[in-house]
Amino acid sequence: MVIGERVRLVGGEGLHAARVLRMKRGDLALLSDGKGNWSETVVDDSESKSVVLRVMDSGFQPKRKISITVVQGVIKADRRKENMELLVQAGVDRIVPWQAARSIAKLEGGVEKLQIASREASKQARRYWHTEVSEVVNTRQLASIVRAADFAFLMDAGAETRLTDYFPTNKYVESVVVIIGPEGGITEEEMEMLAAEGAQMVKLGRPILRSAHAGMAAVAALSVALGLW
Q: For the chain, what are the domain ranges?
């Protein structure tokens, strides 16, 4: 957007700004298209279902050099939104739902609700790049994701090696995949298949984390080890 340009925010976003946030003339608003472009704006006018914004500054945030993907074993419906929020806030670039053998639940309705939760969490966290939520994969499809990554880690509380033991020795990294099993755990067959494709079995520490929470902890540890935080 061009500095000085006036734009009208309409639709669901405009309605939310006008009626829920009750934005008025002089209030500041930060806009982003979720693909790196951002604009700092000020409200020029507010109506019942829309607001008019004036652009004060604009820019572009490049993507990080290191991409982090979390493969999340499908979990119960009541924990999915929280799981999305935690992963997005941690800075994950992509989330891949995994229908593992021991997944208690299924994403029968597809990933639309997960994508909505991810988009809302991206806005809440003021991320200029929104987290991508891919379609559900099975274990064989997951194997190809593991092969394509520079590093792939399968989180296993019984592993002997810690996740952070791999870094910062390995400095030339562009893509990392973190695999989190469902509430029911990961089968021996799944472990063997993913290990054969290059996945490393690692742990975080002594505490045992819920499936919905383990991803954020792993990404936080990775982000510090890789110098992203």
A: 6-60, 67-225
CA-based nearest residue to 144, from 196, 184, 191, 181: 196
Burial of 14 (0-12, 13-18, 19+ CB in 10 A): buried
**Rounded Cα distance, 173 and 166, in Å:** 11
For residue 67, count other CB atoms closer than 10 A to its CB.
16
Cα Rg of the chain (Å, integer): 20
Report the length, in residues, of the chain: 229
CATH number of 6-60: 2.40.240.20
Report residue 35's pLDDT band, with 50, 70 and 90 as the boundaries. very high
Give the CB-side neighbour count of residue 218, counting CA atoms within 13 A: 34
Alpha carbon distance, N-terminus to C-terminus of the chain: 29
For residues 69 and 177, the answer to whether their CB atoms sit within 8 Å is: yes
CA 105, CA 75: separation in Å to the nearest integer? 6
Query: Model's pTM, two decimal places?
Result: 0.89
pLDDT attached to residue 56: 95
Model pLDDT for residues 152-211, shown as the tens digit of each residue:
999 998 899 999 888 866 567 899 999 999 988 999 999 999 999 999 999 988 888 999
Q: Architecture of 67-225 per CATH?
A: 3-Layer(aba) Sandwich (3.40)
Angle between helices 77-90 and 211-225 (to 10 degrees): 10
46 C-beta neighbours (distance < 10 Å), count: 21
Helix (H, G, I), strand (E, B) or coil at 11: helix
